[in-house]
Amino acid sequence: MAVKCFVGILLPSCSRMTEKKTNMASINSVEWRSICDKFTNAQRLTETESRNDPENDPFRSKYKARELLREVYCSLKSFEAGDREEDAGGENCEQRPPDQPVDGQTEDAFSKGFSGDSPAGMRAAKLGAVEYYLGVNHVDTEELSAGQEHLMNCMKMLEKCRVSSENVSLFIHVRNQLGILWAGRDETETAQGFLESAESIYHRYMKEDGRPPTDMTEYFTTEENLLTHQERTKRFELAYTHTMYYLAQVYKNLGENERAATYCHSTLQRQLQLNQFSPMEWALNAATLSQYYITKGRYMEGRHCLAAATVISGLAGEVPSEAAAQESETESERREHLQQKRAEIARCWIKYCLNLLQDAKKLLEDNIGELDTDRQDELKRARRQEEEEEEKGRKSALLFGSEDTFDSIASVEEKVMCLFPLDFTEARTVFLVGQNYVTQAKEYFQMDGYVTDHIEILQDHSSLFRALAFFEEDLERRCKMHKRRVDMLEPICNGTGPLTFYSDSKVFGLLVDVPSVCSSADLNSRYYLLIRRQLMFELAETYNEMMDLKLTLANRQADNHSLDGHTIKKFNHLCSASAKYFQMFLDSLCSPEGKPPEHLEEEVLRPALVARFRVARLHSKLISSSPPVQLENLNRALENYKYVVQYCEAHPEAPAAVETELELSTEMVGLLPLKINRLKSRMAANN
C-alpha cells in the first residue's frame, strides 16, 4: 500500500518507492548510498551554492535542496514500510509513550520511548532529522508556518525515543530552532520554554552519559565518512553554545538583564574555547556586554570585556589601505567594516572611562558638589584592601581568552584602572585613555555622514573634561578645562561649524522632505532641534560653572569693589553667555509665534524649569554700577523666579521635579521685591 507523505506542504507521492526494503537498507547498499548522496547535495546547496543565488531568485538553491530532502524523506518512509512488514511485533518491549503536548518539555525524554540505538529509535531519529532540515529550509525561505509544522513533526518523532548519544544533538537543535522561530514572533515565553528545555537536556545528558554524540549529518553518511569523536564533541558543544546565545536574547527581552548578561558572557567564552567566532562580531558583542557591567558599577568585568574586544578585534587583521580599497570592492567593504566596528569599540571604551570618572565624582563630592577631602582620605586608606578584593575578584571571575590571548588581554587591562580614581593624577590617567579613544572614534565617525554620532562623541569628550575638572584643585586650571568644552561645542551649536552643511539619515529619518543641503538657519532650526537643545543646555551649564568658579575666586577677595574692570567684564560675560544659552533653550520650546508652552512635556519639564531658575539667578548675579541696569536685571530675575513658582502651582506634577529650585524660587519671590523697592528708593532720592 502506498505511503503518502504529508509534511508541512504535501510531499510528492512516495508510492513509487514502496517496494519492500529491509533494515532501512544496508549501510553500504546502493539505495542507501543514493540517499546519502542526495542529503549531501542538499547540504551543499543550502550551505554553499545558496550564497551565489541571484537577487531575482534568492532561494533557488534552497528550493532545490528542499526537493532533495523530500526525496530522502520518501525513501526513508518506504524503507519504514518494508521494515514494518518484516519485524511487526518484534519490538513490543519498547513502547511509545502516551501522546502528550509537544511544548519543549523534557519530563519523560530520558526514561520513556525507544532506545536511541534500536532500529525503531534510529528510524525515528532519521525521519525527525529530515523533518528538522525541511523545517529550517522553510524558515530560511520565509515560509514560517510550514517551517514550524516540519519542526513540530520532528518533535513528535522524537517523542518515540529516549534521549541518547544517537539523538541528543537533534533533541537540542530542533528546540533551538523553535526557540528562534517563536522569538521572531515576539512570543518570548514560548521561545523560553523550548530553549530552557534544550538547556536541560544538555546538562542531564552530560551528567548521565557525556559521550561524544552522533551528529545529525551522520544519519546520512557512509561509514568511511563518519566524524571523529573530537569533531562530534565540537559540533555538539557549538549547538549548546547557540542555546545559550538565544537564551541570552530571551532573558534580555523578558527584562532579566543580569541573567541575560551571564548567558551572553558564557556564550562568548564558549565561542573562544571552540574557536567558532567571527573576530569583529565577537569583539563588538563583548564591548556591548561591557556597557551592562559598567551601568552596574562592575568595572573590573567591564574593563575585561573591552580589553578582550580590543585583542580579539585585532585577529581580524589590518585595515586595508585607502589605495587598496579604491582598487578592490572587496577590500573597500572590508576597510569600511573594520573601521566601523573598531570605532564602535572605541566608543564603548569612552563610556567606560567617562562612567568611571563620573561614579568616582559621585563618591567623593560633598552636598554642594565639591571634593570632600575627608572622604578622599578615607577612601585612600581603604585602597589597599580594595586592590586585594580586586585580585580575588579576578581569580573568581569568568575570564575570556586562551593561552594565546590571555596575556594580551591583561596587557590592555593594565593601561586603565578599574578602581575609582581618588585624586587628579589617577583621574587624569583615566581621562587620557578616554581621550585617546575619542580620537580613534572620530577618525571614522566624522561629521560628513555621521553627524549625530560625531556630536555624541564630542559631548562625551566634553563630559570627560567636566569629570576631570572636579578633581582639579586649581580653579583657574579648572576654568580652562571648561573653556575647552565651550570651544568644541559652541561652533556646532551656533551653526558656524561643519554641522551646517551635512545631512545624516539617522537624524533626517525622523522627519519628512529633508534636503541634503540646507542653509545654516534652516537646517539648524528645523532638523537639528533636539541636538541643538542638548548643546544649548550643556553650553549654558558650562558657562554657568565657569561663572561659579570666577565667583568663588572673587569671594576670596574682600568684596566686589576690589575687582578690577577686566575681572568684572569677564564675570559678566560668563553670566550673560550662560543666560543666553538657557534662554535659547527656552525659546526653542516656544511656538512659532514665540509663545511659551502652557504645558511642558515630561522629557523637558525639569530642564525647562531649571533653565528658568538659572536665568533668574544669573540676572541677579550680574555686576553693574548703573542703577537702571541693576533694576532691569533684578526685574528679569524676579520674572523668571515667579514663572517657576506659578508653573508649579498650576501643575501638580511639577514640584517633585524641581524641589530645590522651587524652594529657592519661592524664597526669592519674597525677597527680591524688597530689594527692588530699596533700589527704586535710592534711585528716586538721587534724582
TrEMBL record:
Compartments it resides in: Cytoplasm, Cytoskeleton
Gene Ontology BP terms: central nervous system projection neuron axonogenesis; microtubule cytoskeleton organization; neuron projection maintenance
UniProt keyword list: Cytoplasm, Cytoskeleton
Renumbered residue ranges of the record's region Disordered: 83-115
Highest taxon above the source species: Eukaryota
Location, primary (coarse class): cytoplasm
GO annotation, cellular component aspect: cytoskeleton
InterPro entries, A to Z: KBP
Recorded family membership: Belongs to the KIF-binding protein family.
Protein name, as recorded: KIF-binding protein
Organism (species): Gambusia affinis (Western mosquitofish)
Taxonomic placement: Eukaryota, Metazoa, Chordata, Craniata, Vertebrata
